[in-house]
Amino acid sequence: MESTNKKTQSASLKPYVYDLTLEGWQEWAQSNGEAAFRGGQIFDWLYVKRVSSFDEMTNLSKSLRDKLKEQFDFVTLTEVAKYESKDGTVKFLFELSDKNAIETVIMKHNYGNSVCVTTQVGCRIGCTFCASTLTGLKRNLAPGEIIAQIVKAQQLLDAKNERVSSIVIMGIGEPFENYDAMMTFLKVMIHPKGLNIGQRHITVSTSGIVPNIYRFADESTQINLAISIHAPNDKLRSKLMPVNRRFPFDELIEACRYYVAKTGRRITFEYALMGGVNDQPEHAEELAQVLKQFPMAHVNLIPVNFVSERDYVRTPRDDIFTFQRILERSKVNATIRREQGSDIAAACGQLRAKHMESSAR
């Protein structure tokens, strides 16, 4: 049976039903005296029929359902809050079984529904402009707790006869610091007998955990990689992102070179623009010099979200366009992220921070 990271589960003493891949369920079935195809039936109940209890798995014997009840828990995601934006964005604040809170966001695009999932309770990376890091890292999520966010989102969309069409792993936390759970999540998401999300419709974002960029390159998937770069040089990046002191800028760029050479895929570089900090023409020129070595690179320019506990301000609109033009003049493709859900605090970590603040009163 596949191992589960029990250190991540502070309230449940059992693994979660979503913790296993199809192969894991087949192995579990055989180790419990059942035919391997029973594992496939369980997988189908979870991800095609999307049931919420073992009793609904009606083509399984009562004895098998009893074994499932004894050995596994369903993930508890209690809806604490749900906000709907005028642009169609839906943001959930979920409470876990140990009373920690996480966020999940459904974003509506002209090409379908994208879901942004969380991989950790809090974050230890310490980016100085991000709300997710304000209270540090509480714990990693189990694979099933990540998967349950997608199942919840799909259950909501089922009522509208819609489906999750893409996934971004860009919620609270650093996915590459919960790497094994993230990979289990991905294997379940892309499986043709499960939710069957196309690999090229999934993007995972990292702040630059260099060893796991190499590891991810060697996975040989078609899943997209995004790097939160946010500065064009080592000194400024260390100021904005303490992770750069662990994995310096040059090491990050070298890992990106390896990824591109190994996979042949492009990298998206996320760049949050902060007024007067990293948004000047000289920053754009320097960034262009660094990134033009990646012919397929794409830069996603992000006007920084206001966080009351931080001092950063947004870059003026005209300056954003100037920054973009400088990059494109050097043949570095750049787009400006369309803002979604600003009226419901949809930026990563904002809703959880407000919830924690009110809970502490």
From TrEMBL:
InterPro entries: Aldolase_TIM (IPR013785), Methyltransferase_A (IPR040072), RlmN_N (IPR048641), RNA_MTrfase_RlmN (IPR027492), rRNA_lsu_MTrfase_RlmN/Cfr (IPR004383), rSAM (IPR007197), rSAM_sf (IPR058240). Residues 109-343 form the Radical SAM core domain. S-adenosyl-L-methionine binds at residues 173-174, 205, 228-230, 305. It catalyses: adenosine(2503) in 23S rRNA + 2 reduced [2Fe-2S]-[ferredoxin] + 2 S-adenosyl-L-methionine = 2-methyladenosine(2503) in 23S rRNA + 5'-deoxyadenosine + L-methionine + 2 oxidized [2Fe-2S]-[ferredoxin] + S-adenosyl-L-homocysteine; adenosine(37) in tRNA + 2 reduced [2Fe-2S]-[ferredoxin] + 2 S-adenosyl-L-methionine = 2-methyladenosine(37) in tRNA + 5'-deoxyadenosine + L-methionine + 2 oxidized [2Fe-2S]-[ferredoxin] + S-adenosyl-L-homocysteine. It is an enzyme of class 2 (transferase). It is found in: Cytoplasm. [4Fe-4S] cluster binds at residues 123, 127, 130. Keywords: 4Fe-4S, Cytoplasm, Disulfide bond, Iron, Iron-sulfur, Metal-binding, Methyltransferase, rRNA processing, S-adenosyl-L-methionine, Transferase, tRNA processing. The active site is at residues 103, 348. CDD domains: Radical_SAM. Binds 1 [4Fe-4S] cluster. The cluster is coordinated with 3 cysteines and an exchangeable S-adenosyl-L-methionine. Its EC number is 2.1.1.192. The keyword tRNA processing applies. Its cofactor is [4Fe-4S] cluster. GO terms for biological process: methylation. NCBIfam families: rRNA_mod_RlmN. Specifically methylates position 2 of adenine 2503 in 23S rRNA and position 2 of adenine 37 in tRNAs. Reaction proceeds by a ping-pong mechanism involving intermediate methylation of a conserved cysteine residue. PANTHER family: 23S RRNA METHYLTRANSFERASE (PTHR30544), RADICAL SAM CORE DOMAIN-CONTAINING PROTEIN (PTHR30544:SF5). This is Probable dual-specificity RNA methyltransferase RlmN. It comes from Paenibacillus konkukensis. The lineage of its organism: Bacteria, Bacillati, Bacillota, Bacilli, Bacillales.
